[in-house]
Design a protein that fits this description.
The structure is a single chain. This protein is α+β, with helices and mostly antiparallel strands. It has 18 helices and 36 strands. It has a domain of about 240 residues: Distorted Sandwich (Beta-galactosidase, Chain A, domain 5). The protein is globular, with a radius of gyration of 25 Å.
Length: about 725
């Protein structure tokens, strides 16, 4: 796959070019970043953690359209009310419609548009549809999407195709469908759909003008949902406003959600949503050139789109078992779309600093999921377990809350849920096999055996630390032992983590360049190969150094990964779309690699961390639509940039500390609870001065190359003194 990378960031650190952000931080966000290439973000509107995400759709099927939109397209098919941000699987796009003018019965209701007439900003999206002859503006609050549509010709109406949505096979998307015109102003529907998830979704769509005529349009025989043209009798220059809400519970639930926005004031909703974003984005102010500000604040925006609440306004939701339940959290909200395999690495640590009040809510949602499923979620979307990814990263989130002393959920309930989820077999983990062999043998566990072993080790480490904090020494010791199982798959001859069978024999033949992808062509790794997964020991870097025989040897191994080139010709090896943003065999476009640049610093070579972070930030992030080199994955790609630009990164997200790297911006000030400030200053930062000669915290030399979570929350000043070597 050929990716277009944005031009490297120009580090013009002159006084005249440095601008400090004041006032509207949202002004610095470019919501089109990541909408081309493989970023898979969308330009529609969403409130922080919002339930609806209305936006344009330029395609429905395949890798290109996981979010339903690609910047390079020139036709809009519809406007859906739900979208996933940056994921690698298509889903959502519910209750989609598009305006039309003229004849109500057509072969093609899609419309061309000019890029010059498409505008997107925080809280508002607008486009002129040339064929449809309509101007569409949309906004949303947390629960309701609101449209303002101005018709530029007579015969203004709306076309609904209730079959559509992001899916691999459009004909198979809808399993059951019950749609009705409840009255002349309101459409209500309930459907069972399948794509990335199989789920029940209801929706209510209300108009500020009455429907004059409903025409049912013929549809393909395999489609189970209707297609409607709704005619309003509108003339050129007239405007139609539309409100839409969804529910996992029922059509009545969707109507209640719709009623939470009692007015039709489009500009007021757009302003209120923008203000909510600005309050969150303004928690970090930076000194940086304009291009970097755009990348930074867009990354911050993307980091807090998800997870999304799916509970109705009455606090009910439909769980992974298909049953309607009441939310246990006092907020009355149930959060899903966590993309845990990705976001535990940097999004969750970032949230622990900027929005710590959200994490106990996430924990309660995970515990509610446990009550329905019997195990904590691994990769749940729309409240439904997909079993798509591996590992126990809900444990990372919950245990992290416990270690930080965050209240708002039942610690005993949480510890039991984590224990059960680490002992009870499920489709992605057979713990009886893991306990018997100390690893997953590839002849028993046919796919991802190495990755499952390594990633379960991290969950076991997190559970061990949580049990320790609760005083359960026996439980802590059990899972501390399992956390060390990664050592059983390290081959001392090849210096790689590799597959081993139940008799203790290494997989042969072995090629560390051979990529694996469970859903496509199998293999021992998850969306990666031995080069990346050999370093997947976030919780015990000292132990990893020991396996390599010393810090210098680890440094040489990481050097080799960044330099390695697969000499096989294309067609001689398996390829995966997840593998993008390569530097040698380092894969920045996928998450298992993200902590690796910081292993240099932990092995005594912070200069190499500085070099690598500068290269990644300048070459693999940009301010254009193709500015992300891989799926944003609900904000993880973005959160990596935010931490790295500020000069520190959570290699071990549950270690309550951050490894010091090399800042890429001149100054950052984080606003903390209680009115405290944590300020990061990079003295002398320039294109040449990319190395760190010294670091101080609150005026004293920083020792050990790490700062603690407590250091940040206490407020203070972290100073880097930059140098050319």
């Amino acid at each position: 796959m050929k990716l277009k990378f944005a031009v490297g960031i120009v580090f013009a650190f002159f006084a005249a070019s440095i601008v400090r952000v004041f006032g509207d931080a949202a002004e610095n966000v470019d919501v089109f970043i990541g909408t081309a290439g493989t970023g898979h973000t969308y330009p529609g509107v969403v409130a922080p953690f919002g339930m609806v995400q209305p936006g344009p759709e330029t395609g429905y099927s395949g890798w290109r359209y996981c979010s339903g939109y690609n910047y390079d397209d020139s036709r809009i098919l519809s406007f859906g009310q739900t979208h996933l941000s940056g994921t690698g699987c298509p889903d959502s796009g519910d209750a989609a419609f598009i305006p039309f003018t003229g004849e109500p019965v057509k072969d093609d209701y899609s419309s061309s548009f000019k890029k010059a007439n498409e505008k997107a900003e925080v809280g508002k999206y607008s486009v002129v549809l040339d064929d449809a002859k309509a101007v569409v503006e949309l906004t949303a609050d947390e629960t309701v999407a609101l449209y303002r549509i101005k018709y530029l010709a007579d015969g203004g109406g709306l076309f609904f195709d209730f079959q559509t949505g992001m899916v691999g096979n459009l004909a198979a998307r809808v399993i059951e469908s019950d749609i009705r015109l409840a009255d002349e102003y309101t459409v209500v529907g309930t459907q069972r759909v399948r794509s990335f998830t199989q789920r029940d979704i209801s929706f209510a769509v209300k108009f500020d003008k009455p429907v004059k005529q409903l025409i049912e349009i013929s549809r393909p025989a395999a489609h189970k949902a209707p297609r409607w043209s709704l005619c309003f009798g509108l003339k050129k220059g007239e405007t139609l406003k539309v409100k839409a809400a969804v529910s996992t519970v029922s059509g009545e639930g969707a109507l209640k959600n719709l009623a939470s926005l009692p007015h039709w004031d489009f500009d007021a909703v757009a302003s209120q949503t923008r203000a909510k974003w600005d309050a969150l984005l303004s928690k970090i102010s930076i000194d940086a050139p304009e291009k970097q500000r755009k990348i930074f604040y867009t990354a911050l925006y993307h980091s807090f789109i998800s997870p999304n609440n799916i509970a109705d306004v009455d606090g009910r939701y439909r769980g992974t078992d298909g049953k309607v339940a009441a939310v246990s959290d006092p907020s009355g909200k149930y959060y899903t779309n966590l993309s845990l395999w990705d976001t535990y690495r940097a999004v969750i640590p970032l949230t622990s600093i900027l929005a710590p009040e959200m994490l106990p809510r996430f924990a309660n949602s995970m515990l509610d999921h446990f009550d329905a499923a019997g195990v904590l979620p691994t990769n749940a979307y729309w409240g439904k377990e997909t079993w798509c990814m591996i590992g126990n990263y809900a444990i990372s989130v919950i245990a992290g809350c416990m270690q930080r002393g965050q209240r708002g959920f039942d610690y005993n309930r949480a510890l039991e849920a984590m224990r059960v989820s680490s002992e009870k077999n499920h489709p992605k983990s057979d713990f009886s096999v893991l306990e018997k062999y100390g690893y997953y043998p590839f002849d028993i566990v046919k796919t991802e055996s190495v990755s499952k072993t390594l990633e379960n080790c991290y969950g076991d480490y997190c559970l061990s630390k949580a049990a320790e904090s609760m005083g359960d020494k026996a439980l802590s010791a059990k899972f501390a032992r399992r956390a060390g199982f990664y050592k059983n798959l390290f081959d001392t001859k090849t210096k790689f983590m590799r597959g081993k069978d139940s008799s203790g024999k290494w997989r042969e033949p072995f090629n560390p360049f051979e990529y694996s992808h469970a859903e496509s062509f199998g293999g021992d790794y998850t969306e990666g190969n031995a080069w990346q997964y050999t370093f997947h020991v976030q919780h015990d870097v000292r132990g990893l150094i020991g396996l390599f025989g010393g810090a210098d040897n680890l440094v040489r191994a990481v050097d080799a990964m960044f330099a390695a080139r697969d000499t096989r010709a294309e067609g001689e090896y398996n390829k995966s779309a997840d593998i993008s943003g390569l530097i040698g065999q380092y894969v920045h476009g996928n998450e298992p690699s993200h902590h690796i640049p910081y292993l240099y610093a932990l092995a005594g070579r912070p200069d190499k961390t500085a070099e690598t972070v500068r290269k990644i930030c300048s070459e693999l992030y940009g301010a254009s639509p193709d500015g992300l080199c891989g799926n944003d994955d609900c904000g993880q790609m973005s959160a990596w940039y935010l931490f790295s630009a500020m000069g520190f990164y959570p290699v071990n997200p549950n270690g309550l500390e951050y490894v010091v790297g090399a800042p890429q911006i001149g100054r950052a000030e984080i606003s903390l609870p209680g009115g405290k400030k944590f300020t990061v200053v990079a003295h002398g930062l320039s294109e040449e001065n990319k190395y760190v000669s010294a670091v101080s915290l609150n005026g004293k030399p920083l020792k050990g190359g790490v700062i603690s979570h407590a250091d940040i929350l206490a407020g203070g000043k972290l100073e880097f003194f930059m140098a050319p070597k």
